[in-house]
Amino acid sequence: MSYFKTLLLFILLPLSFASLAQAEDKSADYRLGAGDAIRISVFQNPDLTVESRVADSGIITYPLIGAVQLGDLTLRDAEKAIADKLREGGFVQKPQVNILLTQVRGNQVSVLGLVNRPGRYPIETGNTRLTDMLATAGGAIPDGSDVVIVTGIRDGKPFRKEVDVPALFVSGNSDEDIVVAGGDVIYVHRAPVFYVYGEVQRPGPYRIERGMTVLQALVRGGGLTMRGTERSLRIHRRTADGNLAVIAPEKFDVIQPDDVLHVEESFF
């Protein structure tokens, strides 16, 4: 082997071992859920090698010790739970238990709405956060809202939270990047829009950007035509009681979702 190949091998081997160790750590943090398939083995006890599936109750049945509650335990804690029962029952003096996750079904999160790859995704670690799952689903498409809705169950009660994703990074408020749980549904709705018509270059619906003003909305519509005038702007807006109001806005008023901006023709 040449000098350069030997040098490259010494560089790459530690990196490979580090990546493998990191992957094992993540797998160990995974919490078992209903439907997960596992393979349990005990060192020097081949008769205790079992393939099982976690029941809806979180229980599996294991030789010699019977029913064992493994639901919501990490793989390390599940290994310890089985080892303790084997030792306490006098079946194996110093059991070395290994659990391999062969199929993930229990701890999955559904990502729906305007994302690039909607679907169900497994929770790979015990501290998987909202942004991790959004990244797994390919992120929101351009028409997707910045505010994401998360629903699920927490402490046995229905849970619902709206999270402003860009604000997590702009304001640095990482506490809002919540840890997801099995059974959660992440939904990305369509971004709010406004409508502009009349004497503008490009009438139509447009996405509302943060803090967008009437003047910025006009620019988004391509600006005024030769016959348009800013003096005759009108906004048609639905009020809280469901009635339609017609407003004469100022240029720096903030556009609201579903506003209809009309630019009238100048007669002078």
TrEMBL record:
Entry keywords, A to Z: Cell outer membrane, Ion transport, Lipoprotein, Membrane, Palmitate, Polysaccharide transport, Porin, Signal, Sugar transport, Transmembrane, Transmembrane beta strand, Transport
Matching InterPro entries: Poly_export, Poly_export_N, Polysacc_export_EpsE, SLBB_dom, Soluble_ligand-bd
Compartments, record wording: Cell outer membrane
Signal peptide: 1-23
Keyword Cell cycle attributed: no
Domain SLBB: 108-188
Source species, domain of life: Bacteria
Annotated Polysaccharide export protein N-terminal domain residues: 26-101
Soluble ligand binding domain span: 193-247
Key word Signal present: yes
Name this protein carries in UniProt: Polysaccharide export protein EpsE
Naturally occurring in which organism (per UniProt): Candidatus Accumulibacter phosphatis
